Amino acid sequence: MEGIDERSRELIKTRILGKIKEIRSFPQFVVETLRKLNDPDSSAHDVAASLSRDEGLVIRTLKLANSAAYGISRDISSVAEAIALLGYKNISSIVLAASVYSVMDKPLAGYALDRGMLWRHSLTVAYSSRYIAQLTKKGLPEEAYVGGLLHDIGKVVLNDYVRFGYGIIVKMVEEQQIPFLEAEIQVLGFDHAMVGAMLVEKWGLPEPYKYAVAHHHSPNNLAEPKHQNLVDVVHLANSLCLMLGVGIGADGLQNYLYPEVLERLGISDYEMLMSDLVDFVAQAEAELSEMEEAFQ
Question: By residue range, what is the domain housing residue 223?
Fold first, then answer.
C-alpha cells in the first residue's frame, strides 16, 4: 500500500500492543465496586465499603452526586447516603465516569478532537444509548449507558499512530470512499474499536461492554446474539450523535448507519429520534463542566 511499508506497519502494531499494556488497569476495588453494584445480593454497605478504599474516588463521587446532573436538593455527605438516594445504577455510572474521565480528558490530534470533545461525544452517546434502550425496550438502559460511555475508548491508545498515518488514512477515506475504521485497519493493522475492546478486557469489565465497543461500527458482524440489542443501541446512538455533529472529529467523515439496526430495534423514523437526542447534547455539556470541577 502506498505511503507505508509492511515493516513499518508491523512495528506500529507492536507499539500499539505495548501501549495497551502500559495503560493502567482499573484499580481492583473499582472493578469490585462495579461488580457489587451489579449484584442484586449486595448491600449499600458492601458497595460503600468497597468504594471507600479510594479517598479521591469518594470525593469525586460525592461531588458528582451533589451536582445538578442528579437533581438532589440536599447535600450528600457520605457514600452510603449517596447510594441510598441515587440507587445502584446511578452510582455505578458515576463510579465508572469518575474512573474513565482522566483517561479520556485529553486532546486527540490524530482524530482532530480538541480536549473535552471525546468526553462530550462519549457522554452524549451514553445518554442517547440509555434513552434508546428505554424507548425500544431492547436491552438494559444502564448497560447501554456504560456501553455508550466506553465505545470510543480505543481512540486514546491509537491517537498517536493515527496522527502518524493521518494523511494516508484520510486520502484512502476520500479517494476510495471507505469508512475511516477500515482505513485504520489497512494502515495500522488495528482500528479503535478492536483496541477499545482489548482495553475493556484488560480492565476486567463485564463481557457485554467488550462487544459493544468492538462492534459499535460493525453491528451486523456480531457473532454473539445475546449482545445484539446492546450493540445495536450503541451503534445507533453513536451514528445519530455524529449526525448531530457531536465530537465528529476526523473519523466522522465516512460513518455508516446500518438500516438493519433500525429494523431490529423497531425504529421507523430515526430523524424524529435524532431530534429527541438534541436535549442530551446540552446535558452532556453541563456534566462535562461538573466533571471538570470535580477533578480539580
Answer: 6-24+108-294
